[in-house]
Design a protein that fits this description.
Elements lengths: L22 E6 L3 E7 L4 E8 L3 H14 L4 E6 L9 H14 L6 E5 L3 H8 L14 H17 L3
Parallel strand pairs: 1-4, 4-5
Antiparallel strand pairs: 1-2, 2-3
């Protein structure tokens, strides 16, 4: 489901994407960014971007979006239990907005609540926070992107 009052495409960013058009999904964290890719029907994990600075993460994600020729980037938005946006959601929006300024594709936000827990369960791994050697960020990104597609936010 898209976040309430979220427009599918930012103003001036085009009419939409078509089937078999590359889409990226992002699970943005403080130190890692999970990246997934889709042709508009099935999302799969692509990579995990480790970064020391926010700027480095933004530049690497923008480069991946260009390399993949992404027509749409879906950023997981970590909403609070109530559905409201907290500080982490605001940081994530700033990150996504910065990526959007560096690529020629729209960036949209999608509710990501519980994706890390679901991704850990899906790969049979313990929660990443308790076991830092387990990296599931790219799987969480795939779940965010697949959820967006399944909710009808995919290609038109």
């Amino acid at each position: 489901m898209t976040v309430a009052n979220e427009r599918p495409f930012p103003p001036g960013k085009g009419p939409g994407v078509r089937l078999h058009t590359r889409m990226l999904g992002l699970d943005v964290g403080e130190r890692r960014i999970g990246v997934a890719v889709s042709d508009g029907s099935l999302a799969v994990p692509l990579t995990i971007v480790e970064h020391r600075t926010r700027a480095a993460g933004i530049e690497r994600v923008a480069a991946i979006a260009r390399e993949q020729q992404a027509a749409l980037v879906v950023v997981g938005l970590p909403l609070l239990e109530s559905g409201a946006e907290g500080e982490q959601a605001r940081r994530t929006r700033r990150f996504g907005d910065a990526v959007a300024r560096r690529i020629d594709a729209p960036v949209v936000y999608h509710d990501e609540r519980y994706t890390t827990v679901r991704a850990a369960a899906a790969v049979g791994a313990p929660a990443a926070r308790r076991h830092p050697r387990v990296r599931i960020d790219d799987h969480a990104a795939a779940m965010i992107l697949q959820s967006y597609i399944d909710a009808g936010g995919g290609p038109t």
